[in-house]
């Protein structure tokens, strides 16, 4: 009877993990193809991103209110001093990462975007070394060389290569390295109380919105105000369809962050990292099959080389965590470039005798 119960528990855990991974894939892959689909007909990616940020903030605020009502605990609200001094740099870097990523869809294919965005791990490692979150080791140098070499092979003589779009997404990956490093530093400050993912998203979105607004005003403001799809609309039905499509993207963006949180809280950050590797493969296969993206043998070899570097990085993190024994804040960052947040659960309040469940959350744009 005991063996049967253990087998049932194992199967149940495996099914739960598989379900959470599939949920994460649906949101992550879905928002990638959604962004590419929408930018084909709606050429205002910065406005699209800003509206997504507003939707994420709305759902985050609603989630905070529901959690507060159910737990009867007041959610953290930062002072203006801490908000502007500590959160603003992370929010600005995150806004530029997401904004430039979405902007690149105007020019490049999903496959080139996926491959180039995977190089975010390279920049994360570089900035982790600069900020002394990682120690320089030969294995990390090998990871950097594998990812950089794979990116070069994937883009070399690519028939669908576009320099403008490539520069945008590579710039997003570079800023993503700064973003995730600052995010880790921000979330390791226990005095801020932003260890919960909902609280972090709630505080980041307004400053991200304001950080993107100048770029939007310069590059899209005039064109948007004279476009018949938005401000000079003549067809109310068309306007509602456009707004509905934009709102759907915001739901996908919030769902991506929340699905990552669920996956990590129920399994581990290593599971999310491994799932992220296979997600990139699935995205490329779908892009080649559904969108007709042309991927040569050299491109596939470059992608395999890049994935080898990411896999090595994940394996090193797993060995490092196992060698440490007790769980504690990791110095490295996760290998998943999408995401968008690295989270740990809140510490128990004073007088609370229940143990706090430790959660790591890594994340997109």
From TrEMBL:
InterPro entries: Sugar_P_trans_dom (IPR004853), TPT_transporter (IPR050186). Keywords: Membrane, Transmembrane, Transmembrane helix. Residues 19-312 form the Sugar phosphate transporter domain. The keyword NAD does not apply. GO terms for cellular component: membrane. Residues 344-365 are annotated as: Disordered. Residues 349-365 have a biased composition (Acidic residues). It comes from Myotis myotis (Greater mouse-eared bat). It is a multi-pass membrane protein. This is Solute carrier family 35 member C2. It comes from the Eukaryota. The chain crosses the membrane at residues 12-34, 46-67, 112-131, 138-156, 168-187, 207-226, 238-258, 270-291, 297-316. It is found in: Membrane.
């Amino acid at each position: 009877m005991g063996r049967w119960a253990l087998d049932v528990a194992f199967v149940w855990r495996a099914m739960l993990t598989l379900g959470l991974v599939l949920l994460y894939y649906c949101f992550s892959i879905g928002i990638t193809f959604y962004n590419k689909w929408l930018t084909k007909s709606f050429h205002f990616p910065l406005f699209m991103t800003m509206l997504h940020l507003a939707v994420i903030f709305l759902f985050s605020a609603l989630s905070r209110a529901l959690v507060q009502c159910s737990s009867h605990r007041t959610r953290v609200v930062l002072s203006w001093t801490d908000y502007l001094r500590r959160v603003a740099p992370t929010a600005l870097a995150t806004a530029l990462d997401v904004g430039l990523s979405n902007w690149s869809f105007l020019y490049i294919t999903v496959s080139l975007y996926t491959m180039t965005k995977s190089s975010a791990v390279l920049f994360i490692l570089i900035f982790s070394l600069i900020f002394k979150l990682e120690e320089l080791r030969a294995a990390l140098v090998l990871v950097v060389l594998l990812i950089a070499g794979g990116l070069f092979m994937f883009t070399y003589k690519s028939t669908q290569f576009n320099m403008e779009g490539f520069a945008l997404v590579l710039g997003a990956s570079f800023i993503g390295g700064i973003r995730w490093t600052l995010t880790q530093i921000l979330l390791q400050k226990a005095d801020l109380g932003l260890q919960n993912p909902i609280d972090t998203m709630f505080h980041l979105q307004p400053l991200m919105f304001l950080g993107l607004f100048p770029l939007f005003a310069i590059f899209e403001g005039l064109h948007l105000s004279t476009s018949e799809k938005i401000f000079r609309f003549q067809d109310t039905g068309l306007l509602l369809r456009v707004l509905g499509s934009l709102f759907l993207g915001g739901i996908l963006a919030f769902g991506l962050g929340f699905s990552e949180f669920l996956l990590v809280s129920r399994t581990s950050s290593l599971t999310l990292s491994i799932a992220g590797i296979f997600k990139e493969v699935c995205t490329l296969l779908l892009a080649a099959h559904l969108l007709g993206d042309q991927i040569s043998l050299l491109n596939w070899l470059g992608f395999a080389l890049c994935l080898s570097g990411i896999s090595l990085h994940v394996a090193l993190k797993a060995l490092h965590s196992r060698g440490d024994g007790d769980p504690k804040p990791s110095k490295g960052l996760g290998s998943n470039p999408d995401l968008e947040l690295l989270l740990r659960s809140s510490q128990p309040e004073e007088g609370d005798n229940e143990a706090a469940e430790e959660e790591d959350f890594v994340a997109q744009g």
